[in-house]
Recover the amino acids of this structure.
């Protein structure tokens, strides 16, 4: 280390004290690990929509899929919807709501709410519907590649894995029931190389018959792709493999109930929640497993759901669940993971709190603020239609406490958020965008909305690498004056 960098390090060490970097929302439930949480410090209310998109540029009405999560990256969001009897992937400019392009897709079956994914490295949207998976250019919607599936796709969303061995891969599942097993598909994304990657973009690298599958959205843990099956198993596969192979592990749900949604992975553990077709708000269950070995750590009663659990950094877990009828009711639950055991802190319905949560919809956690954005349930006569509003909730409070509902956000159920403070969701009026002012934190070097030691680490790394971002005074030099300026910004905190 040079003397200047050593001096910077010692100055930072002497002056400083406790994020994850905020990113785009490229997958259902944010990213490959499917943890629907983001570090944002909001200065005020989210408020009313900044724009709502309900028609094509020519004025034709768009019926967006009410339960499908939106995805967002850079200056675009991607949604799916109907225009008359035709189904489309639709790219929308995030700044003003203008339609960038519409690309025809096969019609979904079984009211599927499969979400797209955005492949930022290759500037495509990966969209799955019917029996097709397509990569569409983010620039103009042109088909970059297309692959067929053996069964229809129902509710599952694509997974993009960078550095899956020698190349990037996409993983996707289709529907399986009875004699027709669902399959897991591994698709190449990178350019052909005769030695390191003998596949063209869009080529099927391998697929495997799994068994009963519905809504089996894959998640990533290191080099493992995890899926949950509707006969109650969690399976892991090697993301780097170039041929079909047996699962690396198979975990069994101790209750025997099936999974009809996605898995989330955080800090080496995977979380999946089941669906029970009968019984009350504790008739299903959620499990925690070791994502490396498949060992089941605990199981806890829960409301029935197809949504993805949201594990938080402090060990709590949010679960949106329930349907109006069949012994159930919509609810949002908060669990506390004690390591080898778990307890339910509260359930909004059981506690007599506000109507929040739904079995098809994954909430968004605002971790910096200890808050969550949860949907208000849709109309009872339209359970798969759009949800009317989002409740911004204070997770430090009980559902019956004053101030538990921080804000009621009318117009849409928010399913995606970005580091700039934009939020997106589908409502009865169409796709809606919201914008919230962020807390002003000049020393927030890693952009997570708070001032902590990770900003110092990020600054020192950039300073050592002579990254222009660390030249805070803009004089073209990397010296102690930049360190002084950073320390002053750090000390100023947030306003």
């Amino acid at each position: 280390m040079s003397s200047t960098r050593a001096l910077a390090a010692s100055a930072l060490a002497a002056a400083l004290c406790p994020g994850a970097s905020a990113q785009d929302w490229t997958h259902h439930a944010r990213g490959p690990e499917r943890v629907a949480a983001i570090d944002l410090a909001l200065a005020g209310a989210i408020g009313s929509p900044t724009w709502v998109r309900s028609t094509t540029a020519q004025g034709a009405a768009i019926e967006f899929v009410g339960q499908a999560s939106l995805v967002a990256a850079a200056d675009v969001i991607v949604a799916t919807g109907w225009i008359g009897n035709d189904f489309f992937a639709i790219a929308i400019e995030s700044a003003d709501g203008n339609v960038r392009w519409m690309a025809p897709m096969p019609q979904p079956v079984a009211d599927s709410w499969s979400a797209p994914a955005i492949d930022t490295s290759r500037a495509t949207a990966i969209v799955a519907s019917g029996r097709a998976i397509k990569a569409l250019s983010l620039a103009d919607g042109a088909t970059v590649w297309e692959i067929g599936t053996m069964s229809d796709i129902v509710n599952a969303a694509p997974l993009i894995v960078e550095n899956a061995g020698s190349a990037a891969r996409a993983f996707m599942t289709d529907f399986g029931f009875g004699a027709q097993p669902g399959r897991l598909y591994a698709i190449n994304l990178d350019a052909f190389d005769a030695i390191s990657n003998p596949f063209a973009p869009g080529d099927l690298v391998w697929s495997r018959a799994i068994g009963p599958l519905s809504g089996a959205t894959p998640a990533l843990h290191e080099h493992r792709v995890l899926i949950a099956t509707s006969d109650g198993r969690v399976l892991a596969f090697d993301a780097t493999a170039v041929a079909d192979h047996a699962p690396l592990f198979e975990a069994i749900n101790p209750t025997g109930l099936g999974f009809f949604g996605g898995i989330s992975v955080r800090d080496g553990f995977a979380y999946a929640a089941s669906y029970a077709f009968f019984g009350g708000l504790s008739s299903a269950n959620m499990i925690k497993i070791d994502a490396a070995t498949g060992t089941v750590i605990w199981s806890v009663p829960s409301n029935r759901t197809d949504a993805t659990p949201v594990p938080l950094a402090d060990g709590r877990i949010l679960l949106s669940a329930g349907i109006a009828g069949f012994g159930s009711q919509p609810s949002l639950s908060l669990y506390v993971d004690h390591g080898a055991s778990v307890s339910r802190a509260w359930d909004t319905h059981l506690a007599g709190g506000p109507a929040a949560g739904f079995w098809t919809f994954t909430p968004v956690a605002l971790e910096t603020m200890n808050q969550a954005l949860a949907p208000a349930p849709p109309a009872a006569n339209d359970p798969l239609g759009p949800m009317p509003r989002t409740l911004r909730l204070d997770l430090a409070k009980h559902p019956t406490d004053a101030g538990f509902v921080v804000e009621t956000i009318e117009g849409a159920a928010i399913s995606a958020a970005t580091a700039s403070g934009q939020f997106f969701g589908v409502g009865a009026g169409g796709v809606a965008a919201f914008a919230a002012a962020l807390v002003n934190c000049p020393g927030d070097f890693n952009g997570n909305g708070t001032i902590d030691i990770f900003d110092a680490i990020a600054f020192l790394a950039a300073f050592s690498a002579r990254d222009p971002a660390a030249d805070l005074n803009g004089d073209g030099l990397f010296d102690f004056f930049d360190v002084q300026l950073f320390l002053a910004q750090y000390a100023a905190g947030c306003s």
Summary: Helices lie at 3-15, 453-464, 480-492. Residues 14-22 have pLDDT under 50 and may be disordered. The longest helix spans residues 3-15.
